[in-house]
Amino acid sequence: MKIRRVTLQGFFKKEFTQIVRDPKMLFAIFFIPLIQTVMFGLALTSEVKNVELAVLAKPNSRVARDIRARAQASGWFKVLPVSQEKDPASLIESRRAEAVLIAPKEGFEKALERGNAPIQLLVNAINAQRAQQVNGYVQQIVAEVAAERGYNVSAGLIQLDQRVLFNHNLDTTSYMIPALMVMSTFIVLLVVCGMAIAKEKETGTMEKLIASPCTVEEIMLGKTLPYFVIGLAIVGLVLFVGVAWFGIPFRGNLLLVGVNAALFALSALAVALIISTVVSTQQQAMMGSMLYLLPGILLSGVFFPVANIPPVFRWMCYLNPMMYSVVNFRAVILKGGDAALFWGNCFWLAVICVVLCALAYKNFKSTLN
């Protein structure tokens, strides 16, 4: 394998010059990951907020008034100005409320005095996970109000002293941004690198490279190494925005972040090379990238835990380099890193990288030949 430093320097200069000259390329490389980070950090969250709650009780019920006040102050609910309704279910059916708390006929006070309060809660459960959280929030608020009023509603129950580790504020942003470092970088590298190589084939410049004295290895490395550097820069950018802007905790080591970033960037570039060898145009490269990205993201644990994926499809997750990278980033950034977990994931990620790079080299060489 003959690789000349001067040739690689020429490829580096050519690729970076081409990227800087194209504003659309710069936008795709840097601003799209930044926009994704801001969107997931500010707007796209799985936290339950702004739940429209109706509390139906007698107008003079002090417990009902306290429940409304506590629910409004919690930040989870928007309390509706409704105290009586002939058909409580109609509030949910008409989408005026997402949850309806209904007092018994004798009122909250007498029901709580009996100890086993038959208080009814209607919840819109189209989103089952959200409904479960809403149910837990309402139960917590009712229990707190009852305790303040002196009602004993916890007799015979085990009292739990709950302590939250690694994400004390239960903030979705802290959970999502480490995964965004993988998702954003993988998307950019796969799409941009694949399209860049496809553009060479589409415009005919790849034929000139083949006719040049450059070796296959020099062409392959020269076309991918610039994007490898860009991938590491994107990881650094997203991490900086997450820590400086959104205040996510960083308890790990930058060296471990760099090792993980380098491995999954190599895997992304290998996939981009494989796709570019089987397509002829940039449009086909874009479609091929999307064909890989959709299942890759869904089976990576970015949005859904891998343990929740049915066993029939779960084996595919362990062939996905994004899964190992997401687990490593979350462990290093939020927990400080578990050495056995981190290096175990790095081992399998390296194995996948070697297989993908070997396949990419074989396809790329046969394509040039």
Count all strands and give the number.
Answer: 4
Count of individual helical segments? 14
How can the largest sheet be summarized?
4 strands, mixed
Q: Which percent bin holds the helix content?
A: 55-70%
Beta content: under 5%
**What is the string of helix and strand elements?**
HHEHEHEHEHHHHHHHHH
Question: Secondary structure elements and their pairing?
Answer:
Layout: H1 5-21, H2 23-42, E1 51-56, H3 62-74, E2 77-79, H4 88-93, E3 99-102, H5 108-113, E4 120-123, H6 128-148, H7 172-203, H8 205-211, H9 216-244, H10 254-278, H11 282-298, H12 311-317, H13 321-335, H14 339-368
Parallel strand pairs: 1-2, 1-3
Antiparallel strand pairs: 3-4
Helix pairs in contact: 1-9, 2-7, 2-9, 3-6, 7-9, 7-10, 7-11, 7-13, 9-10, 10-13, 10-14, 13-14
Question: In words, what does this structure look like?
Answer:
By secondary structure, this protein is mainly alpha-helical. Helix content is 66%, strand content 5%. It has a four-stranded mixed sheet with strand order 2-1-3-4. The chain is elongated and about 90 Å long. The two termini are 16 Å apart. Residues 155-162 have low confidence and may be disordered.
